[in-house]
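Revision sheet: structure tokens.
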Amino acid sequence: MGIIAVLPLIFPEKQLLVNNFWVMFGFLAGITYVAYLLVDIGIKRDPEVGIMAIMGSIAVKMIFCMAFVLIYSIKAKGLGVIFLLNFFSLYLLFSVFEVSCLLRNLRHQNLK
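Predicted:
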């Protein structure tokens, strides 16, 4: 997150972030947190239900993200490439974070 705050200061002449970058960041952080909580609850209840919770959270996260992209592209004209780079880099960042946390929890569960 520190890199994101410093980028506009390093490259002031180029627009590297979309205007509402922090809204997009907050949306992806929120949807990732909700998906993680749902999966964590599902895994703790029953490992077989946990698999369905993982698949369901991936599907719900994808649908909400597609809706966000649609609404943002309708509201904000232009800056398509910058938006795509910002959105997919954040989506990848939060997905890697979510998967690493889930794998850590599953490893602890397998050790018991």
